[in-house]
Automatic annotation (TrEMBL), chain A:
Heterotetramer of 2 alpha/HADHA and 2 beta/HADHB subunits; forms the mitochondrial trifunctional enzyme. Also purified as higher order heterooligomers including a 4 alpha/HADHA and 4 beta/HADHB heterooligomer which physiological significance remains unclear. The mitochondrial trifunctional enzyme interacts with MTLN. Interacts with RSAD2/viperin. This is Trifunctional enzyme subunit beta, mitochondrial. It is found in: Endoplasmic reticulum; Mitochondrion inner membrane; Mitochondrion outer membrane. Pfam families: Thiolase_C, Thiolase_N. The keyword Acetylation applies. It comes from Oncorhynchus kisutch.
UniProtKB/TrEMBL annotation, chain B:
CDD domains: crotonase-like (cd06558). This is Trifunctional enzyme subunit alpha, mitochondrial. InterPro entries: 3-OHacyl-CoA_DH_CS, 3-OHacyl-CoA_DH_NAD-bd, 3HC_DH_C, 6-PGluconate_DH-like_C_sf, ClpP/crotonase-like_dom_sf, Enoyl-CoA_hyd/isom_CS, Enoyl-CoA_hydra/iso, Fa_ox_alpha_mit. Its EC number is 1.1.1.211, 4.2.1.17. The keyword Protein biosynthesis does not apply. GO terms for biological process: fatty acid beta-oxidation. Keywords: Acetylation, Fatty acid metabolism, Lipid metabolism, Lyase, Membrane, Methylation, Mitochondrion, Mitochondrion inner membrane, Multifunctional enzyme, NAD, Oxidoreductase, Phosphoprotein, Transferase, Transit peptide. It comes from Oncorhynchus kisutch. It catalyses: (3S)-hydroxyhexadecanoyl-CoA = (2E)-hexadecenoyl-CoA + H2O; (3S)-hydroxyoctanoyl-CoA = (2E)-octenoyl-CoA + H2O; 1'-[1,2-di-(9Z,12Z-octadecadienoyl)-sn-glycero-3-phospho]-3'-[1-(9Z,12Z-octadecadienoyl)-sn-glycero-3-phospho]-glycerol + (9Z,12Z)-octadecadienoyl-CoA = 1',3'-bis-[1,2-di-(9Z,12Z-octadecadienoyl)-sn-glycero-3-phospho]-glycerol + CoA; a long-chain (3S)-3-hydroxy fatty acyl-CoA + NAD(+) = a long-chain 3-oxo-fatty acyl-CoA + NADH + H(+). The record marks 442 as: Important for hydroxyacyl-coenzyme A dehydrogenase activity. GO terms for cellular component: mitochondrial fatty acid beta-oxidation multienzyme complex; mitochondrial inner membrane. Residues 488-583, 620-699 form the 3-hydroxyacyl-CoA dehydrogenase C-terminal domain. SUPFAM superfamilies: 6-phosphogluconate dehydrogenase C-terminal domain-like, ClpP/crotonase, NAD(P)-binding Rossmann-fold domains.
């Protein structure tokens, strides 16, 4: 009864976002492999190996029985063609029961957010109670294909019946057909690379090179502090087959403003402002979270970390508003949850580029932008920097496209626990001009 | 007055000199940026009115020399000047930009650089003929100045016309246009500073290719070959009817062979001479006319057309769909058979796909554009149509059936437009329950290439219907003339007597090749025999017969049976592979159809030597065309001579150097033309009887169609 009284008091002071008739859904645990620069220690693995490591880490940390999960969902962006449903391969390999269905989703950099919200949907619909969601990205190896003409010839060769047909097909191969086709780094609809778009976005919002470098330095500095202080408790250690055990992210490199200023622009030359140092780098990594209905979690004896509350997906013009997802998603999700910017204690925004983050912050803080492009009367305002990405972000920790979403959500939960806040907000942009935002509520301790 | 574009006028020139003097005098200023505050326009060129206001070539030469002097000062400025280009940078604007030390341009679709002077019968008269060859090489400079084509920013960078490109920006804290200009300015200022601080070097190290090219161009013999070559090409293309290209070559040559003093002098003098030519006058008249015909004089329609349905997916119907679907209008293409529809859909697809090859659009833009096109065989969705354009077979009974079918399914506000080249609209409208909503929209084939749209109104067509049709046409990018109803309207009616004459000329033993040479030699871009093949011999026969009935013996000349026999034998023109010529797919050159010799032999006429010289044959063809045009004005079919000139040039290929039939009468002299016609009249009768309005002009030399 003492506990009940405490709970009642708490509810009076700070309203909870629970809605009548809607199941409470909780984050029980979240883990991730160390995020490594691609081409480093993970170089010889396959994507499902990384996902497997994250899943095993989750099993280990939660002591979850291997048959207690109803469904497993993974997000990924660049697919390894051999394991196109990487969720299934990874869950089988991680020792989960082969009776658990698994599927893979993709939505660029918010793929694991989609994995999580798909899980939320299954629980809300009463289909499932226990979901493992995650994400994986493996940039050390990407599918490089033969050219279309070469593929066509090779497929025709398969069907060729006579030696003569085969020889004539082989004879038709030209040098140019041998040029390989790399996975496109450019937006399909606009043919513009993301870095190029980010540079234009920064220019559109008048974000200077100095501001970008400062933000990048902040991200690395905060990440280093968090790492040194042992705050990144979602990171599991992973014995890489044939290599050492990795236990730490390896992309965190606090530098100096002088060093950063030396870099040349990476995309728009010579006058651009986006450089390698103020952009997120190519990363290998995987993440996993355990999501349950509150009832089920409590019944299984878990102590949940946070509630997953309202979320939105947004999308805009993929040309000129490619990376403005957070600016559009934030006011929308706050409105859904009935909160204001001031109510939020913890912000975790995905840092694709320093310029992109600064542009989003400026957009959120502009009445003109709110009125002209979002149909709002006034701006919602920019997040307070003392609440913003305090343990580093994608710029410093790394950004395995498919895996970042779960890292953001887990970090919010951990920061709420550590800092004693009530509400957290996750926001992220994604290729295709899309975006996502989610409100997370601390679980009463 | 607020102008949407910047033009170089005397006033602007004075302002520039004033500011430039200030830049030079102020020690605190080390460099300057030249930028326009008008979105979408750097400098669109010199003010044409300024040139037209001059009465002598000396005056124009003086204008040119003043421009040259001003730009020379800019070029020799000790303080670097950076031109920051967003939007059109044309003619004098380009000449200004290339006099600057450095050029930065936005990659916007609106940013185009070019020297369109040649299209006005002029040349770049403010140093352009002298600076361009040095900047982009002799062949590149000739290509720019002789074609007058617009060059996009990225191509300009590759050519060495601009140094640096700036991307257009999207939404930010200001409107994209405003912020893009600001960004361009920021980058241009950085460049100006970079030049001052020697971080940007103005003399670029030459690459191997450049060195080789410079060496080759340094050989006098090579240059002579180029001049000769270019001259030959120009003569072949222009038949010597356009003086401007030749003067451009002459001016470039003078500069390169005799030094800058001679070059600049030649440029200024040639500019003065060209400004006084009738060709330039004609071309400038067409330019003004085109601008006028790109406006909707009927006001804003009550409701904009958002859903357009086209009946018939043939060459015409699909062509109309092609120019509509990418303008934000949802387009329905309806045919009666799957085969016909597929062919039409493929035509639209191909039209867009070809634009990808030219890098005008991306494959994604093609796909999203095509999502606005619905192909169908029934009338579903017609209840949402704001306008229906029918492009079915030219048969009054079919048109009547269609109009009844359509009116049963369309909403009350929907406009019914009929695409016909000769059937009177009032006859078609006779089957309509609401004739005020019926209008003629006569497109020209191929629709995506031909700029003209002839809109035909009947006595009953409402003003709003007309306004709506013009609005749609303008959206489709057309130059529009609105004419009164009558057999053949304006364009077909002018063409018919000329074609009748062409048939007679063939019957008189002139072979198709010779006939083509005579017409192109007069300035028609397409010869009369080729034109008949392009239009279709069957169509020509149809029109000749219909209009012959309507206008009587005046429309006689050649025997219609020549055309009819050709059709009977399957010689329907290009579409059937044989007409006056034989067409082999994939082959550009064509031979005369050997089978028409005996056919023409059968219909042979004996030419009268007194009216059969080459020149007489040309004037016989042209005078019938011109007389009919003037008669259309006399009868009120035409709204005015401007639309008459535009319709003839853009729809029928009347020689642009003559500016259209009306300007031709003004320039050539109505009295001289009447004198010629009287001579032909004596031989051929009423085919050549001048109309009253032409006679009036012949009597009074003060009477002119154009002021």
């Amino acid at each position: 009864s003492q506990r009940m009284l405490k709970q009642t008091l708490f509810n009076l002071l700070k309203k909870t976002l629970a809605k009548p008739g809607v199941k409470n859904i909780v984050l029980v645990e979240g883990v991730r492999t160390p995020f490594l620069l691609s081409g480093t220690t993970y170089a010889d693995l396959m994507p499902h190996d990384l996902a497997r490591a994250a899943l095993q880490g989750l099993l280990h940390k939660t002591s979850l029985p291997k048959d207690a999960v109803d469904y497993i969902i993974y997000g990924t962006v660049i697919q390894e063609v051999k394991t196109s449903n990487v969720a299934r391969e990874a869950s089988l390999g991680a020792g989960f029961s082969d009776k658990i269905p698994s599927h893979t989703v993709t939505m660029a950099c918010i793929s694991s957010n989609v994995a999580m919200t798909t899980g939320v949907g299954l629980i809300t619909a009463g289909q499932c109670d226990t979901i493992v969601a995650g994400g994986v990205e493996f940039m050390s190896d990407v599918p490089i294909r033969h050219s279309r003409k070469m593929r066509k010839t090779m497929l025709a060769l398969n069907r060729a019946k006579t030696l003569g047909q085969r020889l004539s097909l082989i004879g038709s191969i030209r040098m140019a057909h041998l040029t390989p086709e790399l996975p496109a780094v450019a937006e399909f609809s606009t043919a513009e690379t993301m870095g190029h778009s980010a540079d234009r976005l920064a220019a559109a919002f008048g974000v200077t090179r100095l501001e970008q470098d400062e933000f990048a330095l902040r991200s690395h500095t905060l990440a280093k502090q968090a790492q040194d202080a042992g705050l990144l408790s979602d990171v599991i250690s992973f014995k890489v087959p044939g290599r050492d055990t990795v236990a730490k992210d390896n992309g965190i490199r606090p530098s100096s403003m002088e060093q950063l200023a030396k870099l040349k622009p990476a995309f728009i030359k010579p006058h651009g402002t986006v450089t390698a140092a103020n952009s997120s780098f190519l990363t290998d990594g995987a993440s996993a979270v355990l999501i349950m209905s509150e009832e089920k979690a409590l019944a299984m004896g878990y102590k949940p970390k946070a509630y997953l509350r309202d979320f939105v997906f947004v999308s805009q013009d993929p040309k000129d508003q490619l990376l403005l997802g957070p600016a559009y998603g934030t006011p929308k999700v706050l409105a859904r949850a009935g909160l204001t910017m001031d109510d939020i204690d913890v912000f975790e925004f995905h840092e694709a580029f320093a310029g992109q983050i600064m542009a989003n912050l400026k957009a959120l803080d502009s009445d003109w932008f709110a009125q002209t492009y979002m149909g709002r009367k006034v701006k919602v305002g920019a997040p307070a920097m003392e609440k913003f990405n305090l343990w580093g972000g994608s710029l410093s920790l790394g950004h395995p496209f498919g895996a970042t979403g779960c890292r953001l959500v887990t970090t919010v939960a951990h920061r709420l626990l550590k800092e004693g806040g009530q509400y957290g907000l996750v926001a992220a942009c994604a290729a295709g001009g899309q975006g996502h935002a989610m409100v997370i509520e601390a679980y009463p301790q | 007055m607020f102008l949407q574009v910047n033009t170089l006028s005397v006033r602007m020139q004075n302002e520039i000199i004033e500011v430039f003097n200030e830049v030079l005098a102020n020690d605190a200023v080390q460099s300057a940026v030249l930028i326009s505050s008008k979105p979408g326009c750097f400098i669109a060129g010199a003010d044409i009115n300024m040139i037209q206001a001059c009465n002598t070539s000396e005056e124009v030469t003086k204008l040119s020399q003043e421009g040259q002097k001003m730009f020379e000062r800019i070029e020799k400025s000790p303080k670097p000047i950076v031109a920051a280009i967003n939007g059109s940078c044309l003619g004098g604007g380009l000449e200004f930009a290339i006099a600057c030390q450095y050029r930065v341009a936005t990659k916007s679709k609106k940013t185009v650089l070019g020297t369109p002077e040649v299209m006005l019968g002029l040349l770049p008269g403010a140093g352009g003929t002298q600076r361009l060859p040095k900047m982009v090489g002799i062949p590149g400079a000739f290509d720019m100045m002789l074609t007058g084509r617009n060059i996009k920013a990225d191509k300009a960078k590759k050519m060495g016309l601009v140094h640096q490109l700036v991307d257009p920006l999207g939404p930010g804290l200001k409107s994209p246009e405003e912020r893009t200009i600001e960004y361009l300015e920021e980058v241009a200022i950085q460049c100006a500073r970079g030049i001052v601080h020697k971080k940007i070097l103005l003399t670029k190290k030459k690459g191997m290719m450049q060195k080789v090219q410079d060496y080759v161009m340094g050989i006098a013999f090579v240059r002579q070959q180029i001049y000769k070559n270019v001259n030959g090409k120009v003569m072949k293309m222009s038949k010597g009817l356009y003086p401007a290209p030749l003067k451009i070559i002459e001016s470039v040559k003078a500069g390169l062979e005799q030094g800058p003093d001679s070059g600049y002098l030649a440029e200024a003098q040639n500019f003065g001479k060209l400004a006084m030519t009738s060709e330039s006058n004609a071309l400038i008249g067409l330019y003004h006319g085109q601008v006028a015909c790109k406006k909707n004089r009927f006001g804003v329609p009550e409701r904009p057309v958002k859903n357009l349905a086209i009946l018939g997916a043939g060459l015409m119907g699909a062509g109309i769909a092609q120019v509509t679907v990418d303008k934000g209008i949802h387009t329905v293409l309806k045919d009666t058979t799957v085969e016909g529809l597929s062919r039409g859909q493929q035509q639209v697809y191909k039209g867009l796909n070809d634009k990808i090859k030219k890098k005008a659009i991306t494959s994604f833009e093609r796909d999203s554009t095509l999502s606005s096109l619905t192909g169908q065989l029934d009338y579903s969705g017609f209840e949402k149509a704001d306008m229906v354009i029918e492009a079915v077979f030219e048969d009054i009974n079919i048109k009547h059936r269609v109009i009844k079918e359509v009116e049963a399914v369309i909403p009350p506000h929907c406009i019914f437009a009929t695409n016909t080249s000769a059937l009177p609209i009032k006859d078609i409208a006779a089957a309509s329950m609401r004739p005020e909503k019926v209008i003629g929209m006569h497109y020209f084939s191929p629709v995506d290439k031909m700029q003209l749209l002839e809109i035909i109104t009947t006595d009953k067509t409402s003003k709003d219907t007309t306004a709506s049709a013009v609005a749609v046409g303008l959206k489709q990018g057309k130059v529009i003339i609105v004419v009164g109803d009558g057999p053949g309207f304006y364009t077909t009616r002018c063409l018919a007597p000329m074609l009748a004459e062409a048939v007679r000329v063939l019957q008189e033993g002139v072979n198709p090749k010779k006939l083509d040479a005579l017409t192109t030699g007069f300035g028609f871009p397409v010869g009369a025999a080729t034109l008949a093949d392009e239009v279709g011999i069957d169509v020509a026969a149809h029109v000749a017969e219909d209009l012959g009935k309507a206008f009587g013996s005046r429309f006689g000349g050649g025997n219609v049976d020549v055309l009819k026999t050709m059709v009977e034998r399957g010689f329907k023109g290009r579409k059937s592979g044989k007409g006056c010529y034989v067409y082999t797919p994939g082959l550009k050159s064509k031979d005369v159809n050997p089978d028409i010799d005996d056919l023409l032999e059968k219909f042979k006429l004996t030419p009268n030597p007194s009216v059969s010289s080459d020149s007489d044959v040309q004037y016989r063809l042209v005078s019938r065309f011109v007389n009919e045009a003037v008669m259309c004005l006399q009868e009120g079919i035409l709204n005015g001579p401007v639309e008459g000139d535009i319709g003839a040039v853009f729809g029928l290929g009347f020689p642009p150097c003559l500016g259209g039939p009306f300007r031709f009468v003004d320039t050539f002299g109505a009295d001289k033309l009447v004198a010629k016609m009287r001579r032909y009249e004596e031989v051929y009768g009423n085919h050549f009887t001048p109309c009253q309005l032409l006679l009036d002009h012949a009597k009074d030399s003060n009477k002119r169609f154009h002021k």
